[in-house]
Amino acid sequence: MQGLTSITNCERRKSLKQVLQSKQCIRIIESHSPISAMIVEKTRVAVDDDYLEFDGFWSSSLTDSLLQAKPDIEKLDANFRLKNIHNIFDVTTKPMIYDADTGGKIEHLIYDVKALERAGVSMIVIEDKTGLKKNSLLGNDVEQTQDDIESFCHKIKMAKKSQITQEFMIAARIESLILDKGLEDALMRADAYVEAGADAVLIHSRKSSGNEIREFALRFRAMHANVPLVCVPTSYSHLHYQELKEMGFNIIIYANHMMRSAISSMENVAKTILSEGCSSPIEQDCISVKEALAFIPGTI
């Protein structure tokens, strides 16, 4: 098997803007390890006389935490997560969007921006919450506090001021719908964040119908025709790529599926070997050792 084409950090960082300019809507998927990223990099499928592939990686704080068996509470700092990103970049070429949670203290965020930008990351996403991070899909079942608009706008401005290159992007993630604060609050924040310098807006929702993100997209597009709009359709997973594209979304992030499927598969393997007393029943669900070795260029 041939090795992957190499790419510089600068070329990789630029490539997200380039693919956004060439496509109306792109697909990004969570990659928590070099092998998961390599699978994403190589996966292409033929659909209706067209070849489809993912356009880049999502570095998820949730799946990075799960990989280390740690709680998803911003325990892993950017420097720790960067080690994993460097390893992913060693064997891939596609751009990466980085989940920065709340961004932490501004004094720390400005250094994280520089480090991530220097490493070749194309975009970071910061969410407008404060305090101890809780997973957004938990909604109001746990205590979550949204930042005030003025404070978060200041964070955006400071993050933008600290970047060096023109191609690096900072997206503002709005948690108003997650916290049941309503569409008007979400739209007001979106307008303010774009004015503060956000390069893109991510609207998050935990409602399964997808109706509120549809309405948000319609009204956001009336205000900002050209600002990239991002969604994470974990809760409304039935909505097809084409539907989200037609709503006006430019970046669709499948935020945790590679890790969730890996956990499910590993748990099933462990249970089956114990209950059956041998590994034979699960061999059909595993690639062979030879195939596994051949998957990595240079192994065989």
Give your account of this protein's structure:
It is an enzyme of class 5 (isomerase). There is one protein chain. Helix content is 45%, strand content 16%. It is of the alpha/beta class and 300 residues long. The chain folds into two domains: 9-255, Phosphoenolpyruvate-binding domains (TIM Barrel, Alpha-Beta Barrel), CATH 3.20.20.60; 259-300, no CATH class. The strands form three sheets. An eight-stranded parallel beta barrel has the order 1-4-5-6-9-10-11-12, surrounded by eight helices. Strands 2-3 form a two-stranded antiparallel ribbon. α4 (78-90) packs parallel to α5, α5 (106-119) packs across α6 and α6 (149-162) runs parallel beside α7 (183-196). The longest helix has 20 residues, at 257-276. The chain starts with 8 loop residues before the first helix and ends in a 5-residue tail after the last helix.
Report the end-to-end length measured between terminal Cα atoms: 9 Å
Class by SSE composition: alpha/beta
Low-confidence stretches: none
CATH evolutionary superfamily of the largest domain: Phosphoenolpyruvate-binding domains
Shape: globular
Task: Tell me, rounded to a whole number, the average pLDDT.
Answer: 94
CATH class of the largest domain, named Alpha Beta
> Which strand order spans the largest sheet, edge to edge or round the barrel?
1-4-5-6-9-10-11-12
Give the CATH topology of the largest domain: TIM Barrel
Helix content: 40-55%
